Request: fold
Amino acid sequence: MGINGASGTSPSDPFSTTAAVAVVDADGLITYWSQGAQDLLGYSAAEVVRHPARALLRGRDPTAAMSRLCRSDHAGDAVVAVRHRAGHAVRLAVRVCPLLTADNRRDWLLLAAPAPPDTRPTGPAPADSAATGASPAGTASAGARAGPGSGVVTRYARRRMVSGQRQVTVAHAAPRGGRPGRAGRERARPRSFFPLHDAAGAALGICYAARNVTTPDPTRERLVLLNAAAEHIGTTLDLGRTVQELAEVAVPQLADFVAIDLLDVATTGKGLPGRSPNGPVTLRRAAHLSIRPDLPKVIAEVGEPIRYRSGSLQNRCLATGEPSREALGPGTPWLPDDPVRWTGINRFGVHTHLVLPLRARGVTMGVVTLLRWENPDPFTEDDQLLVEDLVARAAVCVDNARRYAREHEAALTLQTSLLPPNLPPHNAVEVAHRYLPADAESGVGGDWYDVIPLSGARVALVVGDVVGHGLHAAASMGRLRAAVQTLADLDQSPDELLAHVNDLVMRLSDEAEAAAEGPVAAGATCVYAIYDPIARTMVVARAGHPSPAVAHLTEPVEFPDIPAGPPLGLGGLPFESAEIPLEEGSVVALYTDGLIQAAEQDVDVGIERLCFALAHPDRPLEEICDVMVRALLADRPRDDVAFLVARTRVLSPDRVASWDVPADPSAVRVVRDDVSDRLSQWGLDELAFTTELIVSELVTNAIRHARGPIGLRLIHESTLICEVSDGGHTSPHLRRARSTDEGGRGLFLVAQLAQRWGTRYTGSGKTIWAEQPLPSDIWAKPPIHAGLDRPV
Reply:
């Protein structure tokens, strides 16, 4: 076997299986030793790397054998004897390829495999001797030279062989070639030389056989491209990136240019309307790619709408759902009607057009357009089948991205509908908040916050946490938030409210377990606080939730001792409330445990950092929130985090008027006159008539149907609030009196005159309240007395 040969002496090539690989540098030292080499000879990489390669050769002069093995500038084969680690000799077929390094040194790549059984271990020998010797076959082929300017090296071996009167001349070469459009493909043809002898054993000539082993295999190329597409397309669920990955696979392997245009269905999820093959269609360019990055833009940019004319391949493809292949030229019927594309096709010499629908799971999402101009081969039927398979696989990834985008939008819509988008301003407090779900991709979680206006100028602050993440936790959170808002409208105390929410959670959990769906809101926690700007106090109750933090203006940050009730849904211990006095300008922070337990830090460390963030309550609340995020959430939180920061305000005493009312019907006139005088002081004379009527009805009802003590309070806030309290616990009922009734119209009149009204209960009785808009708001709203049945 000659050193310049590239094929074996048997029909089966020893290198057709996985070969051992080694690299020998110019000094003869082994610099790389593969796992295959270790398996073949038993030496580990540590035992041979940086050691002379000649030490592994068997023979009288290993140094000379190694020199002969690497004496050529071209690739070649040899059969050598190599020492196994166990001590015995191993016959190997070795293929040697020169490697030109960056510093112009020559290394050698050696591929080795067990030699065929009928091959004797020999050193390298010229190809001619194999052809004329007693060996049954010899081989030779061309090899590629590595390094800059590499190309196929063509070698010619000529030898005149005389046997009797015959003379034979032999030449062989490895031609360069390939299918047009696949520039750079090199083909090697293994060649075998067989000496011919006559009956007396005299040499007659040489039999030369060559086999092309690099002829393009369409099936193999198809599989390689599809495998590459499977690895490259769909690496993310981003729709734009996915279509760009499809374009990168198609160019330059399949086309010189590719464009992917999507319908609205790809982003909106709406079905594809029926289309006529002759009707125009408008899509949106999602991606395009060309073999020439400097290609002038003659088509729509990515993201721009693109319109295809009637009769175009794209239009027919969308209408029929079938791919189309067409040669482009002056005879193309629809091109003259599309001057922009006609100009581009002429400029670049586009000769073939292939359009396929981007369709998956019964939904057509757009079209894929491929063009060729530098590749001289037109698209063939085989090309179309390959592209169809590729686009079909890519369409599933595009549809996955489309579905993910739709589901993600739905999740964000759900979260937006469950949380207050913008907290309305309140006179009692100034608020700021943050919400950071652990599942940042979906943007939903189980934490929530709320600010709920209450009667008497008060406000409720709420922060809750449902165990878990994602849509399930968000849905449970929405049900609990709705329950808290409903119960807050009943003006219940914090401990009573949490008791009712606890009952709701237990009932929902029982229903879910009965339906084999698992608990809906098990493990939820909540803190509920009511701030009164007149009393300057906050009443707080918590259900398994961290205690609020209070930043005073002149004192350190405080964590009030609020009785810790059980988490919602567990039952057991009752809930208790605690009252906290607050000065004007104090900052109260309500938060979920994810804030102080972020990044698995110790709770004490989290509390210390929270104190640092709240240390200066006179700063803007948004700045305080930013400091809280930086100090406690340096890394992405593993749990949902929600917190609410409120700065307390107080209502000036001159905006509140109170009277003790004797349980005597004659006191109604006196109280009415006092109310009229106070409204004049506040500049609210326009409200005097309706307010006197409301006061008269509420005070009269308290005197007649309840017991003392009776009190009246007017509050001049963003609305005018009238409150009448008594010692009774009987709930008033609104009803429509019959025409023959002499009474029963009091609350009905109050409901018609007031913007809102209601009842709240205290430990000593109840309070009936009614709110009226201030005169500046009256003209922006319907008349409050528009629903009266009769004049007042």
Summary: The mean pLDDT is 76. The longest strand covers residues 89-100.
